[in-house]
Amino acid sequence: MRFSVRDTVAIVAGALVPFATAAALLPLRASVTHTNLALLLVVVVVAVSALGNRLAGALAAVSAAVWFDFFHTEPYQSFHIQDRADAETAVLLLVVGLIVSQLAARGRTLKRVAVMDASHLERLHGTTRVARASTSSDDVVQQVRQELTEALELRACRFEYGVLTGRPPRLEADGSVTVPGWIWDLERQGWPDGEIELRAVVHGRYQGRFMLTPAAGAVSPPLESRLVAVDLAAQAAAALDDDVVSADRRP
To answer: Domains (ranges, CATH) in the chain?
Structure first.
C-alpha cells in the first residue's frame, strides 16, 4: 500500500510529535495536574489525525499514552506506573486518543469525499456543456484529455483515433487496471509502468483510446476518480460516434 506525501508526514508526526510535546511539558509537571497534561496530548492526537489518516491518528494516540507514562507519571523516566490514578489517566488517554483520532480522520475523509464528488460532477457537466456547444468532436476530445489529466493527476494524456496496437495496461470500465499476463492490484502496486490505455467506447463501437501517463511514483487515484475517467472517455466516444453517424447520413 502506498501513502501520499501528506499521509507519510502525518505518520512520522504521529510517532514524534507526542514525544516532543510530552517532553516540552516537563516544566509544567509540578504545577499542572496529570489530567490536564493528558488533555493537552489529546489535542496533539486530534491535530495529527486531522492532518493524516487513521493509521497516523492511532499511532499518535499510542505514542501520547506511552510518553505521558514515561515523562509524567511516577516513577519518572520509566514505563512503570506506580499510582493507580495515573494508570487510569494513561489508559483513558489511550482510549480517548484512539476514539477522537478515528473521528477526526473520518471527518477528514468525508470532507475529502464531498469535495471530490463535487469536482467530479463538475468535470462531467463541463464536458457535457462543451459537447453541446461545439460542432467538432475534437473539442470534446481535448476537453476530456484535460479533465483526465486533472482527475487522475497524470503527467500526460494523448488520444489515438481508431487504432489498437500493442498490449499496454488498460483501465477497465469497472475502474480496475489489467496488465497482460498479470493480476494487477492497483491499490497495493500503484500504476503500472508506461502508458495506460483507456478505450473510448459507446454502444459497443470503438472510437479510439486515451493513453494515460502517470507521474513518476504517483499514488493511484481512488476508484471514484477512475470511474469518472471511464465516463469521460465514454463522452468523448459519443461525440466521435455522432460525427460518424452524421457523415454516414450525408448524401
So the answer is: 5-110 (no CATH), 136-249 (3.30.450.40)
